[in-house]
Amino acid sequence: KSTKFIKDVSYQDEVTRVLTTSIKSGSVPHLLFYGPPGTGKTTTILAAANELFGPIKKDRVLELNASDERGSNVVREKIKGFARYAVGNRSIE
């Protein structure tokens, strides 16, 4: 079963509480997730993005794995291209 919502994230009670409160209030701060592999960082943030953006999540979230995708080409090609598209002239419904 894939984790689609913050309430489905296990073993991260404080993190999920803060994220849920932030999303409900409409004030989501800048976030930095850190920790060893397998602790749920990616799962948690993708669940939060799903709650924030719903069906347009794929247009608003760029998932990169820093251990695989690093260097100037990633910035030049993937990140800049995504940023141009994501913050272009489209609006969130």
Assembly category: single chain
Number of strands: 0
**Secondary-structure element series:** HHHH
- Please report the number of helical segments: 4
Give an account of the 3D structure.
It is a single chain. With 93 residues, the chain is mainly α. The protein is 48% helix and 0% strand. It contains four helices and no strands. It has helices at 13-25, 41-53, 57-60, 72-86. The longest helix is centred in the C-terminal third of the chain and has 15 residues, at 72-86. The model has no long low-confidence stretch (mean pLDDT 82).
Strands, helices and their partners?
Blueprint: H1 13-25, H2 41-53, H3 57-60, H4 72-86
What can be said about this structure in brief?
It is built from four helices and no strands. It has helices at residues 13-25, 41-53, 57-60, 72-86. The longest helix has 15 residues, at 72-86.
Which tags fit this structure?
93 residues, mainly alpha
